[in-house]
């Protein structure tokens, strides 16, 4: 394992220095910022007294459209004065063959963002341990999360911040329901098992379609994931295709499903741990 810590970087232009001036892009940028701010406020992602003592957030970058958008939106809110936090960007180089090691360090250095690049060969572990035909996602995710927790502690961060969006949450909901027999998705805010770090998802109210448009307008240096992307027949891919079919037949279906997860009626479900059915009885 090898870690590379950056030195002080000179002042650099903001992520939006070369952004398009089109009205449609400006509206998209404002919408994503507004949704992220709403998520931060609704799910109490900032601790009490954050203005006086800003927390440090480890913003996890994979090199995909979601994580680039996450960093840009957080920096946007930070500059507007709506997000009193210190951002530390982090990329985990997992040892995938052909991974362009220079792309993210160069991009982050140009922005002047405090960052850390961590190298851990989880690729070899995953491809060695997972039998042929099985998906890498579960083991890869556990290994990656453990490393990010360690880095967050080393950087004195109170939270790790991920770029999952509303579509990710909906897909996870259906995966858990169909394959796991439970109703669960991606929480906007989660406390880790050790109780010392939060996992935050500020883009949880944003649509993937908006993020994809935003990333194209911003011309981010996207790095494809050759580990997950090399596998065929993934369960998540099947769910995504199902949802895409629903969306084609009934535009707006994804947004309705995402909203449903924020509008849960426990008394109309069947979980006795969430609703007290025992004391439910007619009045005399």
Give a verbal description of the structure.
By secondary structure, the protein is α/β, with parallel strands linked by helices. Helices cover 42% and strands 11% of the residues. The longest helix is centred in the first third of the chain and has 20 residues. The protein is globular, with a radius of gyration of 20 Å. The termini are far apart.
Keywords, please?
284 residues; 9 helices; 7 strands; alpha/beta
Instruction: Return residue spans where pLDDT drops below 50 for at least 5 consecutive residues.
Output: 7-12, 229-233
Structural class: alpha/beta
* Strand arrangement, major sheet: 1-4-3-2-5-7-6
Number of strands: 7
Helix content: 40-55%
Q: What composes the largest sheet?
A: 7 strands, mixed
Give the SSE string: EHEHEHEHHEHEEHHH
Average of the residue pLDDT scores: 87
Rg over CA atoms: 20 Å
* Strand percent estimate: 5-15%
Number of helices: 9
Task: Briefly say what this structure is.
By secondary structure, this protein is α/β, with parallel strands linked by helices. The chain is 42% helix and 11% strand. It has a 7-stranded mixed sheet, sandwiched between helices.
List strands and helices in order, with pairings.
Layout (H helix, E strand, L loop, with lengths): L1 E4 L17 H20 L13 E6 L3 H16 L5 E8 L9 H9 L3 E5 L2 H8 L7 H18 L4 E3 L4 H15 L8 E3 L6 E3 L7 H11 L16 H15 L3 H8 L24
Helix pairs in contact: 1-2, 1-7, 2-7, 6-8, 6-9
């Amino acid at each position: 394992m090898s870690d590379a810590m950056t030195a002080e970087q000179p002042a650099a232009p903001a992520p939006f220095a070369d952004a398009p001036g089109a009205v449609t892009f400006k509206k998209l940028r404002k919408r994503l910022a507004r949704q992220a701010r709403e998520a931060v406020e609704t799910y109490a992602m900032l601790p009490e007294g954050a203005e006086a003592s800003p927390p440090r957030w480890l913003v996890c970058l994979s090199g995909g459209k979601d994580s680039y958008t996450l960093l840009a939106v957080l920096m946007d809110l930070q500059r507007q004065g709506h997000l009193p936090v210190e951002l530390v960007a982090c990329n985990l180089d997992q040892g995938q063959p052909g991974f362009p090691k220079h792309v993210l360090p160069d991009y982050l250095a140009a922005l002047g963002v405090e960052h850390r690049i961590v190298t851990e060969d989880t690729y070899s572990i995953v491809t060695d341990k997972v039998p042929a035909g099985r998906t890498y996602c579960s083991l890869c995710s556990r290994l990656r999360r453990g490393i990010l927790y360690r880095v967050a502690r080393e950087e004195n961060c109170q939270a790790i911040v991920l770029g999952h969006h509303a579509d990710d949450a909906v897909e996870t909901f259906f995966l858990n329901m169909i394959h796991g027999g439970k109703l669960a998705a991606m929480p906007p805010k989660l406390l880790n098992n050790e109780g010392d770090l939060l996992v935050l998802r500020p883009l949880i109210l944003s649509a993937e379609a908006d993020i994809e448009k935003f990333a194209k307008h911003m011309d981010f240096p996207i790095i494809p994931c050759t580990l997950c992307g090399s596998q065929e027949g993934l369960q998540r891919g099947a769910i995504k295709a199902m949802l895409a079919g629903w969306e084609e037949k009934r535009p707006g279906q994804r947004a309705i499903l995402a909203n449903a997860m924020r509008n849960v009626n426990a008394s109309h479900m069947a979980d006795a741990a969430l609703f007290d059915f025992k004391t439910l009885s007619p009045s005399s």
